[in-house]
Automatic annotation (TrEMBL):
It holds the Pfam family Na_Ca_ex. It is a multi-pass membrane protein. One of its GO terms (cellular component) is membrane. This is Sodium/calcium exchanger membrane region domain-containing protein. Residues 6-85 form the Sodium/calcium exchanger membrane region domain. It comes from Pseudorhizobium banfieldiae.
């Protein structure tokens, strides 16, 4: 059973790497076409990644099941949103350093 999960993990890592390499150029073109900065593009990706948890929180609030929403909030959004802001800031700082050089 561990071998199956290790295989799934390796496949997921490989697919994430493959997707990052093949989607990098089209996403850069799209970002330039829409006029987004690097930080805005990173924030957009971060919000898109956090949207399932936001949906869970909204649904649990509507249904009155606060335990599920609280678990999703504490489990991912509390860590994901500050990490998204830090990565976006670091990306914009590196872009500024490239301009200065």
């Amino acid at each position: 059973m561990i071998a199956v999960w290790a295989g799934v993990l390796l496949a997921a890592v490989w697919l994430a790497h493959w997707g990052a390499e093949h989607l990098s150029d089209p996403l850069k073109k799209l970002r330039r076409q829409w006029g987004f900065s690097v930080a805005a593009g990173g924030s957009f990706v971060g919000l898109a990644a956090a949207s399932p948890e936001i949906g869970i929180n909204t649904t649990s609030a509507i249904r009155g099941v606060s335990d599920i929403g609280l678990g999703a909030l504490l489990g991912s959004n509390v860590l994901a949103i500050p990490m998204m802001v830090v990565v976006a800031y670091m990306g914009s700082e590196q872009e500024q350093f490239k301009i200065l050089r």
